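> forwarded from #structure-qc
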């Protein structure tokens, strides 16, 4: 075993302020202890759920980086920092694991407050439709949070009631992965019944539920259902499309393009923390990590990266060209966090169709794959067999979602992390138990019901 077990005696309970996710002006800080008693407090509590979802520990940086640091495509540029994750040296005392775990459970707890308390609110201005929408949005966010925990750590504790302190937490042991995914599905089914079928790229709707269902069924290898739910969104072509050129969904300070199914907003007073870590100091960043030379070369290769070379940029210092990620580039850091894009639905459907042996170049896996490649200014795929097509889809996802939380989770869910990453970098060693992350030791010290994942 290449890991030692470490003990950290640290504890922090994160109480995040709630700010309006639709506007740049902040609201007053709201505690989970504050009552939910009318329309205004219900809406404020829901804004608090979105704010926690977009926090720096979750989609505002840390959880996102857990998806692409262990990819063999990133280099760490600081002492410590992301070095262990980049090298697939997963430690139980890794601060980034603990930060993400805490942020996600805080999101769940905020959602639980809304789900539990809003149904009993008696306010004539809180109409049934509005009440259903608020509860449905909270259920969707709770589903997303439990899905993100499950794909990272396996089965987890399922807390479905709000708490205000560690001492108040019920004694609950970890559920299995299947049980955790079942809770995700139950929340999504509830949310789908409560939410409107409408376009809203910054708040959950029935369509946002379809996107997560497509992803959930893909992870569960339920190929027909993954195809069905991806198709629901692809067929809404008036609302969602692969915008061209590739950079059109993020460049030039755009937000909410037709590429986007669901993204999170940020502002000067609520910035996206990813930008500062990724950008070069000449552009106001701290440059703590960057795409490695091999990945830069691939993205800049017109036959491989195509238009996705827009995801990186460079500066020249001392006659040396220095490359950095450029998906998050705005100053101030108002870059959205991209949760679901229509390109993901095409690639989910392509994978699901390939797994069902529908490989057709006209209405099967190759058709969907080639649409994504065409948008990236690439020729049609030369893959022919089922296995070749599946590996082509895997590789397409690598470039399409370079700085989004997918690459590691893709390789882990397919069981290919060891084969792929060790072939890319001889210094990387992936052990079987590392396909899921270790439970943060700080959390185990706090909760006697929480058991560590095997072999950590």
């Amino acid at each position: 075993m290449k890991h030692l077990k470490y003990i950290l005696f640290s504890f922090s309970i994160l109480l995040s302020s709630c700010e309006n996710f639709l506007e740049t002006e902040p609201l007053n800080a709201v505690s989970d202890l504050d009552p939910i008693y009318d329309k205004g407090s219900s809406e404020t509590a829901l804004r608090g759920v979105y704010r926690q979802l977009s926090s720096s520990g979750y989609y505002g940086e840390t959880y996102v980086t857990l998806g692409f640091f262990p990819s063999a495509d990133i280099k760490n540029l600081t002492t410590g920092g992301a070095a262990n994750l980049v090298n697939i040296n997963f430690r139980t005392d890794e601060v980034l694991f603990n930060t993400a775990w805490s942020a996600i459970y805080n999101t769940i707890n905020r959602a639980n407050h809304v789900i539990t308390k809003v149904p009993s609110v008696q306010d004539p201005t809180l109409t049934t439709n509005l009440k259903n929408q608020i509860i449905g949005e909270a259920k969707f966010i709770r589903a997303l949070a439990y899905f993100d925990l499950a794909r990272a750590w396996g089965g987890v504790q399922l807390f479905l009631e709000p708490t205000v302190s560690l001492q108040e937490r019920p004694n609950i042991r970890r559920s299995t992965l299947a049980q955790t995914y079942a809770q995700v599905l139950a929340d999504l089914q509830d949310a789908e019944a409560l939410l409107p079928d409408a376009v809203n790229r910054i708040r959950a709707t029935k369509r946002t539920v379809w996107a997560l269902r497509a992803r959930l069924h893909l992870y569960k290898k339920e190929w027909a259902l993954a195809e069905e739910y991806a198709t629901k969104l692809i067929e809404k072509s008036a609302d969602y499309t692969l915008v061209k050129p590739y950079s059109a969904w993020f460049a030039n300070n755009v937000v909410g393009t037709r590429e986007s199914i669901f993204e999170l907003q940020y502002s000067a007073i609520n910035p996206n923390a990813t930008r500062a870590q990724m950008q070069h100091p000449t552009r106001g960043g701290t440059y703590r990590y960057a795409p490695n030379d091999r990945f830069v070369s691939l993205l800049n290769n017109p036959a491989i990266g195509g238009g996705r070379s827009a995801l990186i940029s460079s500066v020249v210092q001392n006659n040396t060209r220095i490359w950095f990620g450029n998906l998050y580039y705005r100053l101030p850091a108002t870059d959205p966090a991209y949760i679901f894009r229509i390109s993901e639905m095409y690639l989910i459907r392509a994978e699901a169709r390939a797994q069902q042996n529908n490989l057709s170049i006209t209405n099967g896996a190759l058709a969907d794959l080639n649409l994504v490649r065409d948008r990236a200014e690439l020729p049609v795929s030369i893959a022919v067999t089922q296995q070749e097509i599946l590996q082509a889809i895997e590789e397409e996802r690598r470039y399409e979602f370079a700085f989004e939380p997918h690459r590691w989770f893709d390789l882990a869910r397919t069981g290919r992390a060891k084969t792929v990453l060790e072939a890319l970098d001889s210094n990387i060693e992936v052990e079987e138990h590392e396909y899921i992350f270790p439970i943060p030791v700080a959390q185990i010290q706090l909760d006697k019901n929480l058991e560590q994942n095997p072999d950590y």
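QC bot note: Residues 62 and 350 are 29 Å apart (CA to CA). The two ends are 8 Å apart (CA to CA).
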